Amino acid sequence: PRILVQRAYAKVYLIGAGPGDPELLTLRARRRLAEADLVLYDALVHPEILEHCKEDCERVFVGKRSGQPSIRQARINEAMLEASARGRVVARLKGGDPYLFGRGSEEVEWLAAHGVPFEVVPGVPSPAAVTAYAGISLTHRDLASSVAYLTATESEEKDRSQHDWARLATATQTLVIFMGMRKLRSLMELLQIHGRPADTPVAVVQWASLPAQRTLVGRLDTIAERAEAAGMGLPALVIVGAVVRLRPQLRWFDRQALFGKRVLVARPRGQARETSLLLRERGAEGIELPLLRIESPEDGGAALREAIGQLGSYDALIFTSANGVDAFFGALAESGGDVRRLGAARLFAIGPQSAARLALHSLRADGVPKEYRAEAVLEELRRSYGDELRGKRFLLPRAAVARDFLPKALAAEGAHIDVVPTYRTLGPQPEEVERLKGLLRERALDAILLTSSSTATHLVDALGEDASSLLEGVKLASIGPITTAQAEALGLQVAITARDYTGAGLVEALASLWPLPAEEV
Fold it and tell me: Which of the residues are catalytic?
């Protein structure tokens, strides 16, 4: 007798990525992405979502944007089957929700037909997100108790549309139309022909939930002309119904001070995300492009290792940057030691970010000045030691190139201070310089954040003699007076200097440069 052997397939996850904002990804979707060996993702998936994949995961772009070239659906199906058959866990990542006009059911039918185990992870559906971010409620007790979703792009295999416009036009109080921008004029005419009043409110929302979001409001008889004049395109949803009138009261996303602004975050890789999130909270898009790199000091860390070998001799350690904290404790761990080597030494941090880095090592700073600069650190040391600095031994692990105020001031008061380079900052790579120049030539940046004196220096070095022309119209926001002084010495015009010398303070200062978005007419 024949023995039938069933082939063992790895699981395939069909995952909804949500409408655009990467923070609208579900917890389950994030967990499943982290398990995948192969991710097949669509065009509307935000790049940050792919950061949840494991390091060795293969990421393959498969297109799937209306009107644009993309991999055929059959090839996507085959790719899922082939990877699963080889024992690779597959994540099929789709914008919005997989089952809402996303052809997800077709892909699952294919998997089921071939005996491939699968799981569907719903995503935040685009109508829910679009209306929430545009300030429009899908339903309302007084205005709408019914909703219909429809797509203007049906299967090419159909010989005619399945939409019964005579019924559909007035069947529900709210109507949400997917992929209707190319047929907007004819769609609006159909709705009027079949009973919708010409003055019915309509909204077109493009790039919903992202800083690039655009919302246009009109009526059935005017929206097509207005959308064409405004250059509204894909991806966009059309919302028809009285609920559109709620927008003046329900608007929130596009009322933020930095809404729609594109801001260059020039911090080193791994440090820019926190600032980008702060910008996103204000409605801006953070463009992460490092203008400086953090590298080991030229001596390879020899001086730092020597200082670590005599940690017990210091009365205090002074940290003037988060990078300095990271480099110091990295070297301490590599030496085979831990925080016990610090003994009774006190710890001082120039600001909250350095103090927060110390806290990651379960260490609390003994002193953090209210003003985050070297002069204030000196005053903090005087308060701590009662003006008895003579004879005290301090270790200052910091950048290879930095201000000499603190070492000179402490030496002048009779203290002994060892200044040890823990890292150095280098300029951007050539490809990053070209990307920066391209963004500036295209006038694609509204502002640049100067987060340190080194950032200002490397910005000028990268742009060279074209700096003035390329930066025309771009607002420069500085994190503090030291950075501002350096930038102005280099010939840059700083639009504003933060009062609170932190990333949050810098974003707050930037937000004050623009008036709040005006009310719509």
Answer: 42, 64
Task: Please name the amino acid found at residue 85.
Answer: A
Q: What is the C-alpha to C-alpha distance for residues 509 and 520, in angstroms, rounded to an integer?
A: 26
pTM above 0.85, yes or no: no
Give residue for tokens 């944007």.
65
Number of neighbouring beta carbons within 10 Å of residue 250: 16
- Candidate from 175-184, 219-228, 361-370 with smallest mean pLDDT: 361-370
Q: How many CB atoms lie within 10 A of CB 420?
A: 24
Strand partners of residue 241: none
Go through 473-485 and write b for each residue having 16 or more CB atoms within 10 A of its CB, e for each that does not: ebbbbbbbebbbe
pLDDT of residue 127: 95
User: Which residues 6+ apart lie within 8 Å of 64 measured at CB?
Assistant: 42, 43, 44, 70, 71, 94
Identify the three-state secondary structure at position 206: strand
The token pair that represents 16 in the structure block: 């909804």
Burial code (b: 16+ CB inside 10 Å, e: under 16) for 168-188 equals ebeebbbbbbbbbbebbeebb
Are the C-beta atoms of residues 372 and 397 closer than 8 Å to each other? Answer: no
Distance from the first to the final alpha carbon of the chain: 80
Quick one: 104 exposed, middle or buried, by C-beta within 10 A (0-12, 13-18, 19+)?
Answer: buried
User: What is d(CA 350, CA 482) in angstroms, rounded to the nearest whole number?
Assistant: 13
pLDDT of residue 467 exceeding 80, the answer is yes
Cα(500)–Cα(307) distance, integer angstroms: 32
Number of H helices, E strands in the chain: 19, 20
Look-up of token digits 């949803």: 237
Assign residue 441 a region (left: φ > 0; alpha: ψ between -120 and 50; beta: otherwise): alpha
